[in-house]
Amino acid sequence: MSTGLLSGDARVEAAPRFPRKRKGISGRSIAILVFLSICAAFFCVPLYVIVTTSFKTMEQIREGAIFSLPSPITFEAWVNAWDHACSGIRCEGLKVGFWNSVAILFPSLMLSLTLSSITGYALALWKVRWAGTFLFILFICAFVPFQIIMIPLIILSSGLKVYGTIWGIAIIHAVLSMPFLTLVFRNYYKGIPQEIMSAAMMDSGSFWRVFGEIIVPMSGNIFIVVLILQVTSIWNDFLLGLTFGGLGTQPMSVVLANVVITTTGEAAYNENMAAALLTAIPPLVIYFILGKFFVQGITAGAIKG
Amino acid sequence: MHMKSLATMAAALLLSAAPLAATAEELIVYHGWSSKAEVAALNILQAALNEKGHTWKDLAIPHNSGVNVSIVNMVTGGDPPNAFVTSDPHIFRDLAGLGLERDLTDYYKEIGAADNFFPIVQELSTVDGKMVKVPLFLHIDGMVYWNMDVAKKAGVDPTAWKSVDDMIADFPKVKAAGFVPAAVGGQAFQVGYLFHAMVAALAGPDIYDRIYSETPDPTAFDTPEVRKAIEVVRAFSNEATPESENRPWNETTNTVIAGQALFHIMGDWMKGEWLAAGKVPGVDFGCEVIPGALAVPVTSDAMGILGGQPAEKDKAELDLVAAFVDPIVSAKANQQKGSTSPRADAPTEFRDACNQVAMDAMNKPNGAVKNPFNVITGDWNNGIWTAMYNFWSDKNQTTDDAVAALKDAYDLTFN
Q1: Subunit contact B56:A89, Cβ cutoff 8 A
Q2: Chain A interface mutation, best of B31, B33, B34, highest count of A Cβ atoms under 10 Å
Q3: Closest CB from B36, B63, B79 relative to A263
Q4: Which strand (E) or helix (H) includes residue A152?
Q5: Ranges for all domains in chain B classified under CATH 3.40.190.10
Q6: Could you report how far apart the first and last alpha carbons of chain B are, in Å?
Q7: Secretion signal: which residues (chain B) (predicted)?
Q8: Measured between alpha carbons, how far is residue A47 from residues A41, A54, A68, A186, A257 in Å?
């Protein structure tokens, strides 16, 4: 199909205008390679420092040579970061925050995915009164910075009796991500052929049955895209967890900050680096597992426009 | 008869048990301390609270700047902690406006604590005439910690310095021996702290209080003493090595610990880094206030207590206050944190050589001033920091430029 498109659109005489060199390294490709290497170094050098520092002893770190290789190599900082680092008076390491983050992640994901997929589906495939206006308002909301509405949200969540609980954080995550995610779902569902909807309407006509039996099975890719986006943003979130977390529900990012940031206390850099790496692992794992689907999902959306 | 005595016994039991049961409360203690020395100190405070029959529910937030923001959030959410670390008087005023302030003036008199705090601590703990803070840990903002080994190798004796000029006069000698004389970190906060420590040291309490005040007097910047402080900041900036750019204070101190630099002027919380590196005060490192200092700026890490509570909670909160300011508990906790007890009558056996220097400085009449964060607004503080940090970074700026920039900052903040 794609070749048909190409031969139809592109003219044959276009080819000689960009004569392709056979092989060999040209000046341009060297420049590109150098540029790409610099870009890669830009990300790899800090990573190198983080990883090597996490395996060093504090004695070696005090010498101040940040690019040196660890000698002796020690895993103590990793064990300490996971098991013994202090967040306040509790010195049980990052694992406390890890489990809190997991506990926050699932309800937040469920709420935000459900809420925005249903809203997107309704706006795309059903005739909703004021749909355009609603979409416009949602779109505007996507640009409101959280900090501006933080205090009102605290008052609201306190009124709903969820302030300082995991459900409080989950609800806020779902609400704040709704504008963007709804737009994503809506655009995806707009691409579903009208014939499918018409057939579905004839068969059942029920809003929920069409959604559950026809739409959801068709939207695996987009669910994975949104899942990855949400897992990353929920896992990396600091401000919401700090603000709405309260007692005993602080996510890993807040515990990490407690471990790493110090006002007048001494700093254990090896432990801090290990802690930062530990916190970064879960979203990376999700990317590695679901990365293929992520690309598929994005391109699927792109073709359908 | 039998029944009656049983009933009286039961009643007596109930009566005696009731107050006991009622006093055991869970108190939310909110703070920004998570480093090893800090947690060791908190553990001592927690044990003291438990001894009073109450339990400690911990809530830690990263960094003391975050503490101030989150306390406002928690009050808004209707879920404020019982005890919270903050020194900012504005927070206490806000709480007073909400009816959540707890005035401790009378209670301190009752438990005999009030007169035993250092005078500067009494001042620091008072907001609008009421003692509302629970002073926990005292730090001096600008102390000189030097590496004794480096001093020996360079052939200088920091204890012989009688003035800042003596100190600076030794710089070439130290450099000739291959060391950095003064370790500095090029960050607004570190430059700001060096500046206010130098203003206190060289200009004394009167001029210091004219600058670091709710209603500052910009003419203070024209005084020869403040100009001298600015010149000293320049002398230090000239010692800045390229890698000092944006270097956190911890790392800066570590260059002294590692024997690359002679000394570091920073708050005496840097003791924690020395202790973490296994060094002993008075043996491996020496400590002095800034030579010839007229006054030292004092930071009092303090807590506030939530007011407007039911009687039993309030009683428990007062128990917490009594536990925390107890001279022995306070001395032990401060020993762990590396700070100095706010109580002048704290037992001496928990002090090290550096605590002694700090206490001597605080006992000097009129020799201590308040850390800016205890007095001025964040805006004015940032104004001073920005002006001084620009001066630090731009070697072409003269003392006149710095004075002008400070006055501009004043105009921006207050006019």
Answers
A1: yes
A2: B34
A3: B63
A4: helix A150-159
A5: 25-140+300-365, 143-298+370-414
A6: 83
A7: 1-24
A8: 9, 11, 14, 38, 18
Q: Closest residue of B to A253, CA-based?
A: B62
pLDDT confidence of residue B256: 94
Answer yes or no: are the C-beta atoms of B189 and B267 closer than 8 Å: no
Cβ–Cβ under 8 Å, residues B141 and B296:
yes
- The span from the CA of A274 to the CA of A271, in Å, is 5
Q: Is B52 exposed, middle or buried (0-12, 13-18, 19+ CB in 10 A)?
A: middle
Considering the domain B143-298+370-414 in this protein, what is its CATH number?
3.40.190.10
**B169: which 2 tokens?**
């006069």
Amino acid identity, residue B386? T
Q: Chain B residue closest to A57 (CA)?
A: B277
CA separation for the pair A214, A273 (Å, rounded): 47
Q: Which residue has the tokens 């910690």?
A: B145
Residues facing residue B145 across a β-bridge: B264, B287
Within 8 A of B277 by CB-CB distance, chain A residues are 58-59, 62
List, as one string, the DSSP characters of B200-236.
HHHHHHHHHHHHSSSS--GGGGGSHHHHHHHHHHHHH
| Local structure of residue A147 (DSSP, 8 states) | G
Q: What are residue A191's phi and psi, to 5 degrees?
A: -80, -10
A-chain CB neighbours of B35 within 8 Å are 86, 262, 265-267
Answer whether B46 sits within 8 Å of A89, measured CB to CB. yes
User: How far is Cα A217 from Cα A214, in angstroms, rounded to an integer?
Assistant: 6
3-state secondary structure of B286: strand
B260 interaction partners in chain A (CB closer than 8 Å): 64
Which has the closest alpha carbon to A189: A283, A117, A83? A117
Tell me the pLDDT tens digit for each residue of A202-251.
887 788 888 888 888 888 888 988 998 899 999 999 888 888 887 778 89
Which superfamily, per CATH, for B25-140+300-365?
Periplasmic binding protein-like II (3.40.190.10)
Residue A17 C-alpha from the chain's centroid: 43
Q: How many CA atoms lie within 13 A of B90 on its CB side?
A: 11
Cβ contact B62–A265 (<8 Å) = no
Q: Residue A87: beta bridge partners?
A: A90
A262 interaction partners in chain B (CB closer than 8 Å):
34-35, 63, 250
Q: In the prediction, which pLDDT does A245 show?
A: 80
pLDDT digits (tens, 9 = 90+) for A150-161: 888 888 888 888
Per residue in B281-304, pLDDT (tens digit) is 989 999 999 999 999 999 999 999
How near does any CA of chain A get to the CA of B78, in Å? 7
pTM of the model: 0.79
Distance CA B187, CA B190 (A): 5
| CB atoms near residue B148 (< 10 Å) | 16
- Cβ-contact B388, B191 below 8 angstroms: yes
Residues B154-182: what's their mean pLDDT? 94
Domains of chain A: 98-252+265-304 (1.10.3720.10)
Distance from the Cα of residue A146 to its chain's centroid: 17
Reduced to 3 states (helix: H, G, I; strand: E, B; else coil), residue A115 is helix
Residues of chain A with pLDDT under 70: 1-24, 297-305
